[in-house]
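re: ur question from yesterday

yeah so i grabbed the chain u mentioned. its 223 aa long if i counted rite. heres the sequnce exactly as i have it in my notes:
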Amino acid sequence: MEEKWVIVDKLLSEIKIMSNPNNKPVTITGSSNDLRCIGIGTDAAVFQYIDLPDYAFKLFADDKQDKIQLEAKVYDQLKKSPYFPTCFAAYDRYLVLSFESGITLYDCLLQGVHIPYQVIKDVEDARNYVVKQKLNPRDIHLKNILLQNGRAKVIDVSEYCKPGDDHRWEHLRKGYDAYYEKIDGKAIPFWLMETVQRWYNQRSFASIDEFMKDVLKLKFFWK
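ran it thru and got these structure tokens back, copy pasting raw so excuse formatting
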């Protein structure tokens, strides 16, 4: 272990991450004044150490630690691509990644921040690059894409070694092309974002067009 990460290892040992059923976000117990939680997922939480702000430490739940080496292998195959964070090290409980500044596309919609078309193009290019590396670009959604200086950074590669197409990005791309102009610049309420996400996760719609027609019936979109 590199000397500069020894203190972080000690601080992380005071924090426990617990997974939850039904693909819910993890629960965090313990804390440290020197660590800032900057992200929470279904397998892990991500922390930043105040004295090493260029790094992010992805700490996994005890029952998800088998995924650490798998994710590290994905990063190795991506070969430090500019579309993704860099992985510097993998340990028993966590990954050491580059800290990536920016705002997620999910938060862009919450705050009414414009999402330029360049972001969509960047994600398309990133996906094509992933395929060329013989990986599978799955699980690309609003919370896994950062708006970073007008460009896109994809921040979670944990499912790229899994088979199958979850169609998440294809649906987002189609939604952007066909409907984004209706909401561009509008701050969408949190409750509405969560409602739409819940509807989508139920996957009871015949097509993404049918789904969007139902969403656009909500009065918010016609104010």
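noticed a couple things. The domain at 3-98 is CATH 3.30.200.20 (Phosphorylase Kinase; domain 1). also Residues 140 and 199 are 18 Å apart (CA to CA).
anyway ttyl
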